[in-house]
Amino acid sequence: MVRYTIIERAPAAFQQPVPLEQIQAMCQRAFGKDRSILSIEELAGGGHNNTYRILLAAMPPVILRVSPAHGPHLAQHELNLMRNEQYMQPFLAPIAPLMPRTLMVDFTHQLIKRDYIFQTFMEGELWSDIEHELTLEEDLALYRQLAELTKIIHGVEGETFGQPLVGHTFDRWSSLVVHKLESSIRDLEAIPLDATDVRALLDLVMAHLDLLDQIDRPRLLHGDLWTFNVLVKRDPAQHVPTISAVLDSDRCWWGDPLADWTMFLLHIRATESPDPKVVAGTRAFWQTYADAEPDPGAQFRSHVYHAMSFCDARIELQRRQSHERVRQTYQRIQEIRDALCTCGA
């Protein structure tokens, strides 16, 4: 008898569980029909894929990740994320020891009308789960390690901007930014939500494409590198905890390092968190990352990138029915538009 544990969700929830029979068929395809399944446990934390920890006979535990089925519920930037991850994996070679290994991937849709992948199970605790337990010294050490990892990833150069696998590649950085804003407008209006503020933002961007095109070398961006995708190990023999794994690299793309989701979350934490420990952590990150002092062009670009991130967040928050936070995104984008006007736009 297989112990099968899932997270109970509403019938209309974005994440839909995978039936036991289908998981058994996936395991047989990946590991053979003679390999017994001992337990299947769905893991909490992620908001896109369904993730399961599976224990099979005479094997270390494995992770099964199952993407959502295609449909109108997915925004443009959410399509084919698992396939994007497989395409981008070789470019993450500089941090390979921290990455889960792919054991088997299936995009045939023969067993289930969803992409899925088996990966090695990585030891450690989610940083986001233990943040409240960490001392200031421990937290600062992890933020410094996060900065070092981020800088390593951003040090990988590409040939074009965007995501080559899905065909969204551009020779000019400004063309990609415009494409992303236009896609956000379409996604918002399809929900439907008002996208008037994003259209106004796009007008500002179109008038200053030259500031965006100061970025002429595509860099690798993780797209989702934050505490909820980082495992850490706490060893009593070690003075501070260490990052042991980086998870979920399905949102990787090529662009300006300042446009990475990590940089947006650092900005939000630095400006909005009431916790002095969190604010100190963001400072430790930037001191370690040691980026150049921002010039007017970089300030303009940062404002635009923050607005782009709020567009993506608005779509996700609407899906979660977090209506008050959806309303807050309108205020934040208005503030960004005001700031753009004062810095030359």
UniProtKB/TrEMBL annotation:
All residue ranges annotated as the Aminoglycoside phosphotransferase domain in the record: 40-284
InterPro entries linked to this entry: AGP_Transferase, Aminoglycoside_PTrfase, Kinase-like_dom_sf
Database matches in PANTHER family: AMINOGLYCOSIDE PHOSPHOTRANSFERASE DOMAIN-CONTAINING PROTEIN, AMINOGLYCOSIDE PHOSPHOTRANSFERASE-RELATED-RELATED
Name this protein carries in UniProt: Aminoglycoside phosphotransferase domain-containing protein
Organism: Dictyobacter kobayashii
